[in-house]
Design goal:
It is found in: Lysosome. It contains nine helices and 14 strands. The protein is an alpha+beta fold. Among the domains are: 1-60; 180-278, no CATH class. Strand 4 (129-139) and strand 5 (142-148) form a beta hairpin. The protein is globular.
Length: 346
């Protein structure tokens, strides 16, 4: 995936992109639409770029991290020897500070009239100024602030998601008003109602995942059986009971009546409501990577496509860009022939 043709898919829907590539409308309606609904809670009017990312996720060979994907972040923090302050950032503002004066002691030795004489001279520098960013935050212990040379924003700067205030910047640093899509994830431990899905008996229910097409009468987008990362052998009693853990994606919180339609019986329900990803509406305008002299924005990449892997790519790009700009290595930025040189080196 890449090149001008692929980038142009930001300006068309995945429906248009698929039709342009020769796929039938039936294939789009029956296969592509369910993939978009389960991955992004939206239909085929999302942009072609994120649509392609969504379809890539339907392939086999996907994997999970034992203990949860959050361990990836924990491992990165450990490897980087980073100092983690567990708090909520409230504001960023630019501050000019004086550097500490430098005192130089110089010793010179003269030999007037053949006599040793030592003279000590002290020189005091007036000091320079440096421009830093003051970060204000709140932790369990109360408010705090620190000064930094560079700032990387790694959270969406959208209303209802990012409440960071940028104080005193001229021109003002923009926050973004485009909405994020709500998704409700409901985890249920119970026995599925096979008849609701067209099967006579629970023991005959062979499916572990059900995706849905566009239908205004449907109150769920998908339902799938959840398995532990480390599989546990299923006992005969468990098989006979038909009890499993199911994950349901829906646009709104499920009411009791809807849960009773989906399940014959259940004993545990866990609900997570979150603004999971942007609400795509091509043509997309991607927020800038650089918001100020040394403030970088990682999450703008979500408006091309929202995914862990996309965020990792954005993070690498921001790390390289900020490093090269900090050390004045401008010739390393936007190298037009880089791809060809890398091919040659390989």
């Amino acid at each position: 995936m890449g090149g001008d043709d692929f980038i142009s898919k930001l300006n068309m829907t995945i429906d248009e992109a698929m039709q342009k590539a020769g796929f039938t409308q039936r294939f789009i309606d029956d296969i592509v639409v369910p993939a978009m609904r389960v991955n992004y809670g939206q239909g085929v009017k999302i942009n072609g770029f994120v649509g392609a990312v969504s379809l890539a996720g339907t392939d086999s060979g996907l994997w999970a991290v034992a203990g949860g994907n959050k361990l990836v972040c924990n491992g990165l923090l450990y490897a980087a020897k980073a100092q983690l302050i567990q708090g909520t950032v409230t504001s960023v503002q630019e501050k000019v500070r004086s550097t500490k004066p430098v005192v130089l002691s110089i010793m010179s030795v003269d030999f007037p009239n053949d006599r040793d004489e030592t003279e000590k001279t002290s020189l005091r520098s007036e000091g320079n100024t440096v421009t830093l960013y003051e970060i204000s935050y709140i932790t369990d212990r109360g408010p705090g602030l620190d000064l930094y040379d560079l700032v990387v924003i790694a959270t969406p700067l959208n209303k209802n998601l990012g409440n960071i205030k940028f104080v005193g910047f001229d021109p003002p640093i923009e926050t973004f008003s485009k909405p994020y899509q709500q998704t409700v994830a409901t985890f249920v431990h119970g026995r599925i109602n096979a008849s609701f899905f067209g099967y006579a008996k629970p023991c005959q229910f062979p499916l572990s995942e059900i995706l849905t097409t566009e239908n205004p009468k449907l109150f769920i987008r998908s339902i799938s059986a959840v398995s532990p990362v480390n599989p546990v052998p299923e006992s005969d009693a468990s098989k006979d009971s038909g009890l499993r853990v199911w994950k349901i994606f829906s646009p709104e919180v499920l009411i009791d009546e809807q849960l009773h339609q989906l399940f014959e019986s259940y004993d545990t329900v866990k609900v997570k409501t979150w603004l999971a990803y942007p609400r795509y509406n091509p043509p997309e305008k991607i927020p800038p990577i650089k918001l100020h002299r040394a403030i970088y924005y990682l999450n703008g990449i979500e408006w091309a496509a929202s995914a862990m892997e996309m965020s990792a790519i954005s993070a690498k790009n921001v790390a390289l860009l900020s490093y090269h700009q900090w050390y004045g290595k401008d010739d390393h930025i936007d190298q037009e022939d880089l791809a060809e040189r890398l091919k040659t080196e390989l």
